[in-house]
From TrEMBL:
Keywords: Transferase. Residues 206-366 form the Glycosyl transferase family domain. This is Glycosyltransferase. InterPro entries: Glyco_trans_1. Pfam families: Glycos_transf_1. One of its GO terms (molecular function) is glycosyltransferase activity. Gene3D superfamilies: Glycogen Phosphorylase B. SUPFAM superfamilies: UDP-Glycosyltransferase/glycogen phosphorylase.
């Protein structure tokens, strides 16, 4: 790592992986105490977590937390996507002017693409974490999809050929080569999707099984994370309806994660239609830290039946940490990774009939998957490796 740099981490979003990514970078900085200064600029609600990270390591003076005002958060989050890109970028420039960093890391670069291309130049170096590149995906049929694809490629070319962007850290490793070919000067780095692992005891797993009231001899399907329509819950529930009663009695579905009230009503209604033979456990709360891994250790299969998902998904890494096979969508990088690395099985996640066929398969035969490759994936996506990759290039 270069010495005496002043690095500013910027993110207006603080739920889910956003808080996790900041935590990994802060923990690494606190643990290794490099030369220079780290400034964390994000929502006020992250303050307690930030203080807790520093409390464990007293004497760390070269790191500070700068909360973004509620007014600024409301302004950017209430804007349309195109307008939001510029508003977020202007906010970066505002905080940059105040704190004079030598390098800014945009924790969610996807939001900034339009503004970093067409907006004002920054007086500091800029790098970003790129979550969902899809320029290399096969274009879907239809004029609208083709025009959208052209727009994205034009924007991407503009971003990569404008001076100011130094590094792009890419969570979709299949996009790295194509991105580097588009850019004469921006460095493209494959980035781990970080997960912190814990040594979970069998007693912890059995305690959770008892707490959730899961019947013995049922195979547990875990659908974990922020529960919304992108996760493929409705096609999954429609698939469960198609199973025979004896097949339903062999399974337990665990839905674990926060859910919006309106969508919850829709999901509850669909779950009621599945019938009483199928056991379905609802844990509609945010689960954090060590407890997350206990859920994965408890499961037999981890579901990643995302709808036309772009990029990587951390649940696949969490499944790998626990050595559990993944049932995933066959779409995009996620589907490619699960299939080529033998991490489980893929199917058309938009089709209840296809999902039903996959569920019938796991009930009637041993699903082939590579425990060795799951472990390799877990090793490649450690929180330390994630932080090292970023700080070594800023």
């Amino acid at each position: 790592m270069n010495r005496a740099k002043k690095i500013l981490l910027f993110d207006t979003i603080i739920d889910g992986h956003h808080a996790d990514y900041l935590t990994h970078l802060i923990a690494y900085w606190v643990q290794n105490r490099p030369e220079g200064e780290l400034i964390v600029v994000t929502q006020q609600s992250f303050g307690k977590q930030f203080e807790a990270l520093l409390e464990a390591k007293p004497g760390v003076k070269n790191i500070r937390f700068v909360p973004i005002s509620e007014e600024d958060i409301e302004t950017v989050h209430g804007a349309s996507m195109a307008t939001r890109s510029f508003k977020e970028w202007n906010l970066v420039l505002k905080y940059g002017q105040t704190h004079q960093p030598s390098h800014v890391l945009l924790m969610y670069f996807d939001l900034f693409m339009l503004a970093t291309w067409l907006g004002r130049s920054a007086p500091f170096a800029v790098s970003g974490i790129y979550f969902r590149p899809d320029f290399h995906y096969k274009t879907r049929p239809g004029i609208k999809a083709r025009l959208n694809g052209i727009r994205k490629k034009v924007t991407l070319n503009g971003v990569l050929n404008r001076k100011g962007l130094t590094n792009l850290f890419c969570l979709d490793h299949s996009a790295v080569e194509g991105l580097q070919a588009l850019s004469p000067h921006v460095k493209i780095w494959p980035l781990a999707d970080p997960v912190e692992s814990y040594a979970i005891t069998p007693a912890e797993v059995e305690h959770l099984r008892t707490k959730l009231g899961i019947s013995p001899n049922r195979r547990i399907l875990l659908l974990f994370g922020h529960l919304d329509d992108r996760k493929g819950i409705e096609p999954l529930l429609n698939a469960l309806k198609l199973l025979k009663p004896e097949q339903q009695r062999a399974l337990c579905l665990v839905l674990a994660g926060p859910i919006q009230p309106g969508f919850r009503e829709k999901v509850e209604s669909s779950m009621a239609e599945v019938g009483s033979d199928m056991q379905m456990v609802r844990v509609f709360d945010e689960i954090k830290g060590r407890e997350i891994q206990v859920y994965f250790e408890l499961s037999d299969y981890v579901l990643a039946l995302y709808q036309n998902h772009i990029g990587m998904a951390s649940v696949v890494v969490r499944a790998a940490v626990s050595g559990k096979p993944v049932l995933a969508s066959d779409y995009g990088y996620l589907g490619h990774l699960v299939q080529t690395e033998q991490l489980g099985a893929v199917t058309d996640a938009t089709s209840p009939a296809a999902i039903r066929a996959l569920l019938e398969r796991i009930l009637t035969e041993q699903l082939p998957y590579s425990k060795t490759n799951l472990q390799k994936l877990a090793d490649r996506n450690s929180n330390v490796y994630f932080a090292e990759t970023i700080f070594n290039h800023l």
